[in-house]
Amino acid sequence: MNRDTIITIRWLDLSKGPQILHVPDMSGRYYSVQFTDSSKNTTFSYVGKRTTGTEAGTYLICGPDWKGAVPQGVSQISSPNNSALVDAAIVCDVLCKKSFFSC
């Protein structure tokens, strides 16, 4: 049992266009967002403390055939197909957990 980490798993459907992920300033807190190609069970990108740091960031996740313009200040993450499995983890203390679950 992991008592100090919030974990979420989501599917992204990129067939109708890209999705935006905005990460707030994490103030040095450990977090990771892993993007997986489920057809091959391989990770194609990470966002998190070890790879992108803990400052705020915005990411555009798109499928392989998307040809649009990426807005200024946004980083592009290209998925090898039109679906992606996203697994995110945030290490939290008690106060962090209360703020996440208060809404």
Percentage of residues assigned to helices = under 10%
Give me the secondary-structure category. Answer: mainly beta
Number of helices: 1
In the predicted model, the low-confidence regions spanning at least 5 consecutive residues are: none
- Major sheet summary line: 4 strands, antiparallel
Shape: globular
The residue-averaged pLDDT reads: 89
What's the arrangement of strands in the largest beta sheet?
Answer: 1-7-3-4
Our estimate of the beta-strand percent is over 45%
Report, as a whole number of angstroms, the end-to-end distance. Answer: 24 Å
What is the succession of H and E elements?
Answer: EEEEEEEH
> What's the β-strand tally?
7
How large, in whole angstroms, is the Cα Rg? 14 Å
Highlighted features:
three-stranded mixed β-sheet, four-stranded antiparallel β-sheet, mainly beta, 7 strands, 103 residues
Short structural summary:
This protein has 103 residues and is mainly beta.
Task: Describe the protein in words.
The protein has 103 residues and is mainly beta. The protein has one helix and seven strands; from the N terminus they run E-E-E-E-E-E-E-H. A four-stranded antiparallel β-sheet has the order 1-7-3-4, with no helix packed on it. Strands 2-5-6 form a three-stranded mixed β-sheet, with no helix packed on it. The longest helix has 7 residues, at 94-100.
Q: SSE layout and pairings?
A:
Blueprint: E1 5-13, E2 19-23, E3 31-37, E4 42-48, E5 57-62, E6 75-78, E7 83-91, H1 94-100
Parallel strand pairs: 5-6
Antiparallel strand pairs: 1-7, 2-5, 3-4, 3-7
